[in-house]
Amino acid sequence: MSTGTAPETPRFDAELEGALRSLAAPPVRAGARRRGAIALAVAVAVVVALVAFGAWSGRRPASEVTGDAGTAAATGVVVPGRPGGAAPCAAPGAGAYGANPAHPERAPRQATATFPGGVRWALCGADPSYSGDVLNLRSGDGGATWSVTATPIAINLLHAGDTLDVRFADASRAEVHVVSAVADRDDRYVTADGGRTWRLAR
């Protein structure tokens, strides 16, 4: 019968624990770290792009709207049109991401009016799938060029009973009535300067 000493248990336990840990959590290789860093960079870039185009938050940049909630600044962007043509907006019911004063063609047309002297007026936006922002478009040359400004009006026409009703009184005055039963909203916006500024009249 051997009288030798038993193996050192603490040393054996430490080696066993180390082996089990290496099986449970294999070491991260440099290539995997690099792929993870690239994926993170791409994700950050996508989020920044979405915020820049307003698709993420649905809000207009602060540079486009100033003052209180009832007034939009005249931040006009002049875009080309077509003499005698319609406002350069998407067809009613159509739309795309990134609608803003520089890109009214991405906002669906909601209402148009023609007045003497080549004056044309249109409101576009309130897209159910993309931006709910409403843009104001004015032409003084029969539609050849259009000045586009942001407004404080926004609604995504998602639900039955959601409406955006536009009434042009003349070449300077208009009213926009926004109703959403789901959001318990019934707002009236008025302008007396061709849509350059809007006031919430309620």
Produce the secondary structure layout.
Blueprint: H1 9-24, H2 30-52, E1 77-80, E2 109-115, E3 119-125, E4 133-139, E5 145-154, E6 163-168, E7 174-180, E8 185-191, E9 199-200
Antiparallel strand pairs: 1-5, 2-3, 3-4, 4-5, 6-7, 7-8, 8-9
List keywords for this structure.
202 residues, alpha+beta, 5-stranded antiparallel sheet, 4-stranded antiparallel sheet, 2 helices, 19% helix
Textual characterization of the structure:
This protein has 202 residues and is of the alpha+beta class. It has a domain of 124 residues. Helices cover 19% and strands 28% of the residues. It is built from two helices and nine strands. Strands 1-5-4-3-2 form a five-stranded antiparallel β-sheet, with no helix packed on it. A four-stranded antiparallel β-sheet has the order 6-7-8-9, with no helix packed on it. Strand 3 and strand 4 form a beta hairpin.
